[in-house]
Amino acid sequence: MAPSKNEYQKGLEILNKESNDFLSKNQTIPPNIKVLGETEIKDISKGIGVENTFSLFKKKYGNKISATTGPNYYGFVIGGTTPAALLGDWLTSLYDQCSPLTDVTNILEKETLEQAKILFNISSEFKGTLVSGATVSNLVNLAIARQWIGKQMELDIANNGIVTNNIKVYSATPHSSVSKSLSIIGIGRDNLQIVKTVSKRESIDTDQLEKELQKDSNSPSIVVANAGTVNTGDFDDFSALKKLKEKYNFWLHIDAAFGGFANCTSKHKYLLNSWNCADSITIDAHKWLNVPYDSAFQFTKHIHLQSQVFQNGNAPYLDSLTDSFINLVPENSRRWRALPIWFSFQSYGIDGISEIIERNCEMAVQIGNWIDESEFLILMAEVKLNIVCFKVSEEMEFSTAMYLKAINETNKVFMTPTNFQGEYAIRIAFSNWSTEFSDLNDLIKLLREVKVRLVQ
Ligand SMILES: Cc1ncc(COP(=O)(O)O)c(C=O)c1O
Known about the structure:
A 7-stranded mixed sheet has the order 1-7-6-5-4-2-3, with helices on both faces. Strands 8-9-11-10 form a 4-stranded antiparallel sheet. A hairpin with a 7-residue loop joins β8 (377-379) and β9. It starts with 6 loop residues before the first helix and ends with a helix. The protein is an alpha/beta fold. The protein has 3 domains: 7-67; 84-343, Type I PLP-dependent aspartate aminotransferase-like (Major domain) (Aspartate Aminotransferase, domain 2), CATH 3.40.640.10; 350-455, Aspartate Aminotransferase, domain 1 (Alpha-Beta Complex), CATH 3.90.1150.10. The chain has 13 helices and 11 strands. The chain is globular, with a radius of gyration of 24 Å. The site of pyridoxal-5'-phosphate has 14 residues, from α5.
């Protein structure tokens, strides 16, 4: 069956109805629906048309969609989708501009990146791009760092390949995407040296880092610092790292996938003091900015090195695009992912975005205090930002794992486990724009009820 223009109208009707339906149920659909069993592969030799396809989809998959964008999803750090961002995303598909082949995509992306720099207090020395997520942003930034290391050794790794396996990368609590990136870019996972943290925290011990840097002070290295660790939302001390940078020759990359938003609240801004001393910064948009997947910012002060790594070679048909995002990121053809961010920025402004961040952080403090005062839970780390990490007291007759399982089995909320300093723990992460203080009251009620059920 060939496509027909009439189907657009039908598609819009379906989208309108389905959107209203899904968005109104977002609070009652379970936040994490488990789907077990084999995938049944349908014969596609004959097309069935748009309407039938939607009916088929609803029948096969419709009741398996989780409300991950709803207010009660507290797992990982994933955010939801604001109305403005959703509109921007719908329009991105409608216009289907191949970025960077049309001027409008470039101009709007550049404007969006400049506005992002203001939101995050990132200095004018940095230039940015948009990529699909913090993993790819870390990857791009570490690939630029690799090119920088090469230059320090009078090597051109982008052109000649890796000819040294002695590139040291230091970090205290790196996200798993860092070692994945090191594997992809040929530095190798084993060259990641874990530096000890400050006692009972996830922040790097800068004295220990200095000792490591001293050992190899003639070789350039890379330090991956963290602004918002996954387990506890902890931050490295960027003022101390700035001082070390004045003494030692290293590239400083900051993974601020969600911690970059600390700049949005007067109470948390200090956590990012001196962070402009970095060489590169990663910030996710699809997490706390609450834009749809997939979207992240990538910033660096070394744009010329970035273009050495990502430039297209042997493609005369791309010559007119030399000054373009096409030579700065892994993808050539890209989705116009600046549009949903631009819609968010104009619609809500820094004041609206800050309100979300402040509210989420205040919720984390309140539930952290409640846990700290409760007779059966133990708060495992100070609440620095939006993450609360806790376990069940050893005096209870049920374990932390049993408690988490029972919480998630209510299908009312969803939380994820972690391992914090060798101990199994639960994390509650606040990153959804639509989570209200009334949801917090419901959450506390649920945490109490689950405990009562488990002791009965
Ligand atoms: C600190 C940090 N870095 C990187 C990532 C990877 O982000 P993404 O899943 O957007 O690639 C995450 C995701 O949770 C993160 O929290």
